[in-house]
């Protein structure tokens, strides 16, 4: 059985709430456009629902793995670095979501991928930058060019709304 980290259920619960909120807010952007085309709210809805389901499953798993009150095994705190990593990614995701209205989705996404690659995964800065640029270009190609889904452009209007 895997070891449960103290606070892990709280992280999964917060991520579940955040992703469910993201899915709920997506309806304000419009899930579809005229003619049944995919609208700008489709991506946040799909990713919010998927992330909510995954978070719920992980929350359930972590709650089931929780030690009973009479369990004196202190081995459940064996890897605090893993919990720090989980909180770091959660914080970076929250920061990226808060940046979307200012920078737009593509810039916020690119910064998120860069930060996770460089600071969480400890990749070299050049490698992290390349991964971030490629990931952002793929998202742009798939959603803006191929699916014609306008992404939030933020105050600077970068990469989306059109």
TrEMBL record:
Keywords: Membrane, Transmembrane, Transmembrane helix. Residues 13-152 form the DUF1468 domain. The keyword Cytoplasm does not apply. It holds the Pfam family TctB. It comes from the Bacteria. This is Tripartite tricarboxylate transporter TctB family protein. The chain crosses the membrane at residues 38-60, 92-119, 125-149. InterPro entries: DUF1468. It comes from Nonomuraea solani. The keyword Membrane applies.
């Amino acid at each position: 059985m895997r070891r449960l980290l103290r606070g892990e259920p709280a992280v999964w619960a917060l991520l579940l709430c955040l992703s469910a909120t993201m899915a709920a807010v997506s309806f304000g952007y419009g899930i579809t456009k005229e003619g049944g085309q995919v609208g700008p709210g489709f991506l946040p809805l799909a990713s919010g629902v998927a992330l909510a389901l995954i978070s719920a499953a992980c929350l359930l798993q972590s709650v089931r793995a929780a030690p009973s009150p009479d369990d004196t095994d202190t081995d459940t705190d064996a890897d605090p670095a893993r919990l720090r990593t989980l909180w770091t990614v959660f914080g970076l995701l929250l920061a990226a979501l808060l940046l979307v209205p200012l920078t737009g989705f593509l810039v916020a996404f690119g910064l998120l991928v860069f930060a996770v690659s460089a600071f969480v995964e400890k990749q070299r800065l050049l490698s992290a930058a390349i991964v971030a640029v490629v990931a952002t270009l793929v998202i742009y190609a798939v959603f803006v060019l191929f699916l014609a889904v306008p992404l939030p452009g933020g105050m600077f209007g970068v990469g989306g709304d059109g």
